[in-house]
Amino acid sequence: MKAQEVAIPEQAIPTLHVQKILVPIDFSTPCNKAFKYAVGFARQFGSHIVMIHVVEPAAAVDKELLAGEGTPRTQSETVLAEEKMQALADASRDGRLKITSGIRGGVATHEIVKAAEELDVDLIIMATHGLRAWKHFGLGSTADRVARAAPCPVLVAREREREFV
Asked: Which end of the chain has fewer CB within 10 Å, C or N?
């Protein structure tokens, strides 16, 4: 079957205005990939990147520990997270990129959605960790929950996918 080309009138194609991109950071390999995507988008659209790291309360962290994910957070880990985010931002800046970062406390899903609303972001770019079916069924995916509740589009970078930036 041959694909047909369809001509779309110029005025029907919306211009994308991606001024602010929110990138939740957890310092995992998939998260680094999501940040790389955000940098590519920011360079193309002249966007401002806002990185956030969410420190979850003990109950939420314990749930992750039971599933074999995550580690408990302490004050020193929060300081280390700030330093890591600053290093990530510094390594990506090229004089044109505007990157800011912050740390929030609470449940990751809620804090990411809340930040997107408060900061009036145009796009969230985040990672998914590819939970196996039984873990996903029991715990759900933060990326999935954010995509359902976010006030803007969400681009989810998977750990195993082809590169496009």
From this structure: N
Terminal Cα distance for the chain, rounded: 31
Helix (H) or strand (E) holding 62, with range, is helix 58-66
Spatial distance between the Cα atoms of 27 and 161, rounded to a whole number of angstroms: 18
Vertex 44: Cα angle to 104 and 109 (nearest 5): 25
- Tell me, what DSSP letter sits at residue 125? E
Rounded to the nearest angstrom, the gap between the alpha carbon of residue 154 and the centroid of all alpha carbons in its chain is 8
In this structure, what DSSP letter does residue 124 have? E
Better pLDDT: 56 or 52: 52
Q: What is the mean pLDDT of residues 77-84?
A: 85
Distance CA 21, CA 112 (A): 12
Distance CA 66, CA 128 (A): 19
| E strands in 7-93 | 20-24, 48-55
Quick count: other Cβ atoms within 10 Å of Cβ 67?
A: 13
Of the pLDDT bands very low, low, confident and very high (cuts 50, 70, 90), residue 133 is very low
| CA atoms of 108 and 119, how far apart (whole Å) | 16
User: What does the pLDDT read at residue 24?
Assistant: 96
Tokens of 50: 């806002």
